[in-house]
Amino acid sequence: MAGRLITIEGLDGCGKSTLVAGLAAELESRSLPVTALREPGGVQLAERLRDLVKDPSLQVNARAEALIYAAARAQLVGEVVLPLLEEGRCVLLDRYIDSSLAYQGAGRGLGIEAVAQINDFASGGLGADCTLYLRLDAATRAERIGERGEAADRLELAGDDFFARAATAYDELAAAEPQRIHVLDAAAAPAAVLAAAIEAISELLP
């Protein structure tokens, strides 16, 4: 496949959206074909599932939650991501399978292996060429989220223990796959984070 799939991971508040925008602008400035997408979302069905799974008024079973995310992922990969990669485009994806492993596998206690199997099926085995993991300490993350002044969605209301388990899982995933997952200091200034990200993906760029 000619294109490249670059995923951006980390807990809420770590600066993923900012990094995705910066990377997209940088790649476009180099005349590289790039498309930025988010998960869950990116296509109509996945956006509707996003609204459901994040709605704080709904009671969602942990297994149902994992399956909803996997369903949204399956639709996004089949409808948009694979065709873009086949065209030779670089796809920047705000969250991918690692999010499910950390949030549902560890955070919800469903088990990394079980959630990995669901998502291998959902994605058709499509893995990321490179993953940028924005690592941020709990205190800084809480401060940033507080500054947003936005109502918390269902996942953001999960509690400190949930996010601690997810953070530990992210660290363990990064340690297990250092060739794919590059750990970036999300507490650094946005320009510094962007520079580190560009360096991390440099081998994938022409």
Largest sheet: 5 strands, parallel
Helix content: 40-55%
CATH topology, by name, is Rossmann fold
Domains (count): 1
Uncertain residue ranges: none
**Order of strands across the main sheet:** 2-3-1-4-5
Find the structural class using helix and strand composition.
alpha/beta
- Please give the alpha-carbon distance between the first and last residues: 15 Å
CATH architecture heading: 3-Layer(aba) Sandwich
Query: Could you give the order of the helices and strands?
Result: EHEHHEHHEHHEH
CATH-level-4 superfamily name: P-loop containing nucleotide triphosphate hydrolases
What is the helix tally? 8
Shape: globular
Number of strand segments: 5
Q: Supply the CATH class.
A: Alpha Beta
- Mean of residue pLDDT values: 95
Q: How many whole angstroms does the radius of gyration measure?
A: 16 Å
Report the sheet-strand fraction: 5-15%
Structure report:
With about 210 residues, this protein is α/β, with parallel strands linked by helices. The protein has one domain (about 5-205): Rossmann fold (3-Layer(aba) Sandwich), CATH 3.40.50.300. The chain has helices at about 15-30, 45-55, 60-85, 95-105, 110-125, 140-150, 160-175, 190-200, and strands spanning about 5-10, 35-40, 90-95, 130-135, 180-185. It has a 5-stranded parallel β-sheet with strand order 2-3-1-4-5, with helices on both faces. Helix 1 (about 15-30) crosses helix 8 (about 190-200). The chain is globular, with a radius of gyration of 16 Å. The protein starts with a strand and ends in a 5-residue tail after the last helix. The model has no long low-confidence stretch (mean pLDDT about 95).
